[in-house]
Structures are given as structure tokens and as C-alpha cells.
Amino acid sequence: MPSPRSLRRTALLCGLAVVAAPGAFAQDAYPAKPITIVVGYPPGGSTDLTGRTLATELSAKLGVPVVVENIGGAGGAIGAQKVASSAPDGYTFLVGASNEIAINKLVTQKVKYDVKDFTAIGLIASQPLVLVASTGAGVKNLAEFTQKVSRNPGKFSYGSSGVGTSLHLAGEMVKEQGKLFMTHIPYRGVAPLANDLLGNNLEYGVFVLSSGLPHIRSGKVVALGTTEAKRSAITPDIPALAESPQYKNVDIGVWFALMGPANLPKPVFDKVKKALNDSLQSPEFRKKLEASGSTVASPDVNINQFLSTEVAKYKKIVEFARIEE
Q: Taking the model in full, what pTM does it have?
């Protein structure tokens, strides 16, 4: 028969096991309910498509529903702010683009969050931008564009989808590298920008490649060059601006990343990071994003180093162009 001391010891160990169990169970059980991915734009855009494609993959890999919540407004900043302010419990994430994650804070004091207010999970994909000319501009390539604009300082304009967007920053980078004087015309989105270019009411513009490609392929605008350091595998027939010595330092695009609130617990981070990396290597996932013009990121990208480099690049452009909203 066990002694009273032995019984007390057994009871104490059982009690400790009960106390320890909830935490261990909670860690092992994550996720135990649906996860929300916030997209800071209305349905239908490139960020939304990226978010929904990733949500399908993460749901399969994490074993719970992953739903997309579209919270538009302020260039993606309203949705990003919601995630930055959310509890770091692993149930609210952001699929964000370069605008709301890295650029908005540099151009407006209205944005209160910073990159440090997120836990960066990983890079998802990227797309180059493309500099285009209207058919009425009378240029067929980058050399003709540079010659015509440089000989007529201040006469021509280029449009973007808004102040402080990656499209705007790309245009300013082209101006800086080419030593060109052009007026920036900000539009409320890509649709009105396209209308003015196609109607020959605007000489030049910058598109995300996937948005500009239909107009390029139909001959309604002229592609002058893509904005990343190398040609896009999606459009090997369109030269990169950086292939021209005058524009060799032009390297900017739009990218998409998975972000959580700051201070995300490591066990949660590790599970979501693994699910993201597995998704990046999924043939179906890659096929869907590549069909939209994106290049899927490598799982080996150091996301924090990437973000630091991107913010420094954007800050330089913003300061050069004195962009402020």
C-alpha cells in the first residue's frame, strides 16, 4: 500500500501536469479556429488576387478556413492599420503590397503604423511595372522617349495611379536617372489613367505589368521598358529600362508580403512560415500567380532584410522628388 508521502507526491505531479497541459495543448492545437487575411483594397485587384490565392493554400496546409476580408481605403493603409492593431494571436494577417507596408508612411503623416508594428512572415510574389507611351506621343522605344522629353523640358506629363504609389515612385526614378523634367499627373486608380492614355489625353504613364499588358498587346499603348533590374519572364520581348546605361539603376516593382501583428509568438510564426514556404513551392499556387503576371518569391528570401532595403530605396526617391501627401 502506498505511503501518505507517496500519495501526496503523486497528487502534486498530477496537479503540475494539469497546470502545464493547457499551454502545451494551445500551442499544439494552433490554429483552432478560422484565420482572417486582410487585404487593404476592394476585390479584383492584384493584391486581392494574391491574398485569395494564398488563402486557399494556407487553408489546406493549416487545416482551418482562411478567409479574406477586404478593407479598402487610404491606399491600403486602413486595412494595414487594422492588422497592426490586432492581437498577436495568429488569427489576423495582412497580405499587403509595397504601398501600404513600406511607402505610405514615407509620404503622409496620416499613417501612424510603421514596418516595426508588424511581424514579417515572408515575401509572396512581385511584379514589375512598365513605362508606356500613348500612341499619340510619337515614340516607339526608350531612346526616342528620352530624346524627345529631354529636348522639351516641362512639356510632357506622365500619369500614375496616385501620389506615393509604387507607380509614382517608378516615374520619379525614371526622371532622376534620365535627368528629365516631366509633370506627374496622379489619377484615382488605374482605370482613369488607362482611359487618358488610350484617348491620347496623356503622353506617358506607368502601369503594373499585369494591368498594362492587355493595352500593350492590343497596340493601344507602346511599352518603353519594365522597371525591374532584369526583363520579366512573363514578357521577355519587353526590355528592362536598366538595360539602357542611362537607366541602369532603375529597379522597382510592386511586391506582396504576408504580415502579422508585432510580437507574434514564435510557435505561431513557425507554423505559418512553414505553411507559406510550402505554398510558394506548390505548382498550383505558382501557376495561378504567374498567370496574373507575378513572379513567385523564393522561400529563401530574408524578408526583414528585404524590407529594410526597400524602405531605404523608397525613402531616397521620396526625398529626391519631395513627395508629400
A: 0.84
Q: Work out the angle between the directed axes of helices 303-321 and 166-178 (0-180°, nearest 10).
A: 60
Residue type, 215: H
Distance CA 275, CA 269 (A): 10
- The H or E element spanning position 176 is helix 166-178
Give the β-pairing of 92-97 and 183-186.
Answer: unpaired
Q: How many Å apart are CA 306 and CA 254, to the nearest integer? A: 13
Q: pLDDT per residue over 57-114, tens digit each?
A: 999 999 999 999 999 888 899 999 999 999 999 999 999 999 999 999 999 989 999 9
Give the span between the Cα atoms of 202 and 146, in whole angstroms.
Answer: 16
Q: With helix as H, strand as E and coil as C, how does 201-250 read?
A: CCCEEEEEHHHHHHHHHCCCEEEEEECCCCCCCCCCCCCEHHHCHHHCCC
Name residue 184's beta-bridge partners: 158
200-228 pLDDT, tens digit each:
999 999 999 988 999 999 999 999 999 99
Q: Per the structure block, which three cell numbers stand in for 139?
A: 515614340
What HEC string does 108-165 produce?
Answer: CCCCCCCHHHEEEEEEEEEEEEEEEEEHHHCCCCHHHHHHHHHHCCCCCEEEECCCCC
